[in-house]
Amino acid sequence: MEENNEKAEIYSQRVRAGKRTYFFDVKSTRSNDFYVTITESKRKFKEDSFSYEKHKIFLYKEDFLKFMDALQETIDHVKSELLTEEALAALENPVKEGEEAPFDEELKWE
After folding, report:
1. Longest dimension (CA), the chain
2. For this UniProt entry, which segments traverse the membrane (predicted)?
C-alpha cells in the first residue's frame, strides 16, 4: 500500500496567502493518468484548539486548458476593469514575507 501512495502524489506546491494556504498537487491514477488537486486550507480556532477547514477541487488533464484560459481571462478582467491603478501596482509589487511595507511620509485615512 505504501508504494501506491508514493506513486499517487507526484508533485506538490504550497502557496501561503494570509489565513489560507493553497496546495497544488499532481497525482496519478492506477492507470498512470494524471490530475491536479487544488486544496484551500484555512485554520479555524475554537476555544483553546484549532482545526483546518479544507475545500478541494479535482482538475483532470482534459480540462487543463479550459481551466487555465478561464482563470487567466477572469484575472485579466479584474485587473483591467475592476482594480484601481494603485491596487494594480500593489498587486504587481507585493511585499514579500518578512519584509515591511514601505511607508508614505503622509498618513492617509479612508
Report:
1. 61
2. none
